[in-house]
């Protein structure tokens, strides 16, 4: 990691020197000399028209520095300007369309492609040349996301950001690094800050997750953002597959002997950059972590997650309110009314009574309930299935924290990463949206079907009895 940091520092210093020389040569003011949206427009116009590399880096750096001091109103104006002034050249695009329609050759198609590209894409590429330009563009996208919903005219600008960020942040550019208790303090602070699944309360809590011999953590970084983890994975080494997050995170937990560890549990996976929302890092990130673990601990046999179901509770509430059509096969569905009691989870007998129902409902939610695009409703499920995992086990009362109860009534699941089957599982999901699941999950779903069949038969027999009696009378 030290070598990588030194290389990044070298290139950053070099770009900064080029920018300063370019600024001196151009006689350009620094960002502090002006802070209006008009100044951003001037910088953008100059940047897109310049041909010199040194002057281009200088202009890009001035624009990045300007961005950092702009208030929200000025930033909004910046995006409006990108939408209005830096779109495609309409006359060139119309001419290219006409030429392609007249003679649809590969050359005409290429010219059409070039004419259709908005000028702002090239502007963003040039901004990326500045020291810190990549991070600034990610920050711009985060701000843009907060504006798009109320400003539909900015959707095309957002699409251009996504297009470019997706090419710059694909898995081939990402660096996987281990994180431990000896990692630099600035990185550790960000792990605490960005943890999105199970809150890290303080430095002592972080130490419990990183320092014991049966704990591991890995993070993916981009070379242009060496101090910003993009996604990090927290791992517990265990004996067997766990079904209770409380046991993994307990303050009183004793570390196990590594000779008895046969399972790696990915219990928290956090994306850190809001500006990269919707930008895929690829479909085999977890496989890369698995391979890294095996290099260090070849005795490991099983690789699973212990994952939340962030949309399950709201889905279940809607289904119950709407007549529970998706849950029609569940027996004793009325028992789920216990969930409406604030303290239901504090009573062991209540938890035990509704546990099978929660498991069955969760199985339906994960395997059968689909969005309009044919994919599972649950975002965590989509991530792991897309990475080639299999839905392995479903656990009730696995996370009784306030967040766990609010999101999923305490239900958590294991997704299994079976190395020989990862590519196959990924292809099944990518092609059809089908959820590859284990025999244990099939058994849960089958119990729903069996109960429904039994009820139907019972109803059928019950409806036939009066008829038979009438026939006997006749």
Description:
There is one protein chain. The chain is 54% helix and 9% strand. The chain contains 19 helices and eight strands. It has helices spanning 2-26, 37-49, 53-69, 72-85, 90-102, 106-116, 119-127, 133-148, 155-168, 185-194, 203-210, 245-249, 285-296, 312-321, 348-367, 379-386, 402-408, 422-432, 439-473; strands spanning 175-178, 215-221, 231-238, 263-271, 302-305, 307-308, 390-395, 412-416. The chain has a five-stranded mixed beta sheet, with helices on both faces.
- Element string (H = helix, E = strand): HHHHHHHHHEHHEEHEHEEHHHEHEHH
Main sheet properties: 5 strands, mixed
As residue ranges, the low-confidence spans are 21-34, 450-461, 463-474
* Gross morphology: globular
Mean pLDDT: 88
N-to-C terminal Cα separation, in Å? 92 Å
Number of helices: 19
Rg of Cα set: 28 Å
Could you estimate the helical fraction of the residues in percent?
40-55%
Spatial ordering of strands, largest sheet:
1-2-3-4-5
Please report which band the strand proportion falls in: under 5%, 5-15%, 15-25%, 25-35%, 35-45% or over 45%.
5-15%
Keywords:
alpha+beta, 8 strands, 54% helix, disordered C terminus
């Amino acid at each position: 990691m030290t070598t990588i940091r030194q290389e990044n520092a070298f290139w950053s210093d070099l770009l900064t020197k080029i920018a300063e020389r370019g600024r001196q040569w151009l006689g350009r003011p620094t960002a502090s000399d002006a802070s209006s949206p008009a100044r951003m427009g001037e910088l953008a116009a100059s940047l897109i028209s310049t041909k010199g590399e040194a002057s281009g880096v200088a202009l890009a750096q001035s624009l990045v520095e300007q961005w950092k001091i702009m208030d929200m109103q000025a930033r909004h104006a910046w995006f409006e300007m990108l939408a209005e002034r830096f779109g495609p050249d309409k006359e060139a695009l119309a001419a290219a369309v006409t030429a392609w329609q007249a003679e649809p050759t590969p050359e005409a198609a290429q010219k059409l492609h070039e004419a259709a590209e908005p000028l702002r894409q090239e502007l963003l590429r040039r901004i990326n040349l500045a020291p810190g330009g990549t991070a600034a563009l990610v920050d711009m996208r985060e701000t843009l996301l907060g504006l798009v919903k109320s400003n539909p005219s900015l959707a095309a600008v957002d699409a251009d950001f996504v297009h470019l960020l997706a090419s710059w942040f694909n898995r081939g550019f990402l660096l996987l690094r281990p994180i431990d208790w000896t990692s630099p303090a600035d990185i550790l602070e960000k792990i605490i800050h960005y943890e999105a699944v199970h809150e890290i309360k303080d430095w002592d809590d972080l130490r419990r997750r990183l320092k014991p011999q049966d704990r591991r953590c890995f993070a993916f970084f981009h070379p242009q953002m060496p101090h910003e983890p993009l996604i990090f994975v927290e791992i517990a080494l265990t004996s067997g597959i766990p079904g209770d997050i409380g046991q993994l995170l307990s303050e009183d937990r004793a570390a196990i002997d590594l000779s008895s560890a046969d399972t790696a549990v990915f219990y928290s996976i956090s994306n850190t950059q809001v500006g990269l929302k919707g930008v895929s890092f690829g479909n085999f990130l977890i496989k890369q972590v698995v391979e890294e673990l095996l290099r260090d601990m070849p005795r490991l046999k099983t690789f699973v997650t212990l994952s939340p179901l962030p949309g399950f509770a709201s889905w279940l509430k809607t289904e119950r309110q709407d007549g529970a059509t998706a849950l029609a096969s569940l027996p004793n569905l009325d028992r789920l009314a216990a969930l409406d009691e604030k303290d239901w989870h504090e009573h062991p007998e209540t938890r035990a009574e509704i546990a099978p129902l929660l498991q069955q409902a969760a199985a339906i939610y994960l395997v059968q309930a689909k969005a309009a695009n044919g994919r599972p409703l649950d975002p965590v499920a989509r991530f792991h299935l897309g990475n080639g995992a299999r839905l392995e086990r479903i656990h009730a009362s696995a996370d009784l924290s306030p967040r766990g109860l609010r999101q999923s009534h305490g239900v958590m699941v294991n997704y299994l990463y079976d190395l020989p089957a990862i590519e196959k599982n990924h292809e099944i999901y990518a092609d059809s949206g089908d959820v590859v699941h284990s025999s244990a999950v099939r058994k849960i779903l089958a119990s729903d079907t069996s109960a429904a069949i039994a009820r139907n038969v019972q109803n059928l027999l019950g409806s036939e009895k009066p008829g038979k009696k009438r026939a006997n009378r006749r």
